[in-house]
Amino acid sequence: MVIDNIYNSAELKMSKSVEVLKLNLAKIRTGRAHTGILDHIKIDYYGTPSLISQVANVSLIDARTISVTPYEKNMLGHIEKSIRESDLGLNPIPMGDTIRVPMPVLTEERRRDLVKISKSEGEETKIAVRNIRRECNDLVKRMLKEKEISENEERKIQDSIQKVTDSKISEIDKMISHKESEIMII
C-alpha cells in the first residue's frame, strides 16, 4: 500500500541516479576510442543545438581513432569546432568529407586525474542516493506523527529503504572501482 509506494519510489529514484552515473562514467576517456565519448557534444544545426549523433555518423576507424561523417557537408566546420571546444581535450582533423578524431595517449598524471573525476562522480551519486533515503525517512516519520502508520510499519519501511540504499551504494562502489581499473590499464 503506502509503504510499497514509498519503497518503490525510493528504489526508482536511486536507480535513476545510478543510471546517470553510468552515463557520466561512459564520457570519461580510458585511452581507447569509443563513439560514446562524443555523445554529449552539441552542434549548432541552423540555430538549433543538436547532438552530434543527429547531424553526423560517428564510427570507429581503429582502436584509437573515431570517424565523424556529417550528413550535410556544410556542417563539417561546425562539428570540428564543437569537438575542439568540448571539455574532452581532443584535436579533430578534417579529411575530405569526414573528420578524424585521434585519441591521444593518456599520461600517468592524466590517468590519475581521470580516476579522481570518476571518484568525484561516484561521491556525488552516493550523496544523491542518501538524500533520497533521507527524504523517504522524513516522509515516513511525518506519516507516523500524523498516525497514518504504526511504529512497526515505520521500522519496516526504514529498514527496507536502508537495504536498497546499501545495495545502490555497493553498486556505485563497484562501478567506480571498475572504471578506475579500466582507466589505469595501459
UniProtKB/TrEMBL annotation:
CDD domains: RRF (cd00520). Residues 22-184 form the Ribosome recycling factor domain. Keywords: Cytoplasm, Protein biosynthesis. GO terms for molecular function: ribosomal large subunit binding. Its main location: cytoplasm. SUPFAM superfamilies: Ribosome recycling factor, RRF (SSF55194). Signal peptide: none annotated. GO terms for cellular component: cytosol. InterPro entries: Ribosome_recyc_fac, Ribosome_recyc_fac_dom, RRF_sf. One of its GO terms (biological process) is cytoplasmic translational termination. Transmembrane segments: none annotated. It is found in: Cytoplasm. Responsible for the release of ribosomes from messenger RNA at the termination of protein biosynthesis. May increase the efficiency of translation by recycling ribosomes from one round of translation to another. Belongs to the RRF family. PANTHER family: MITOCHONDRIAL RIBOSOME RECYCLING FACTOR PSEUDO 1 (PTHR20982:SF3), RIBOSOME RECYCLING FACTOR (PTHR20982). This is Ribosome-recycling factor. The lineage of its organism: Bacteria, Pseudomonadati, Pseudomonadota, Betaproteobacteria, Candidatus Kinetoplastidibacterium.
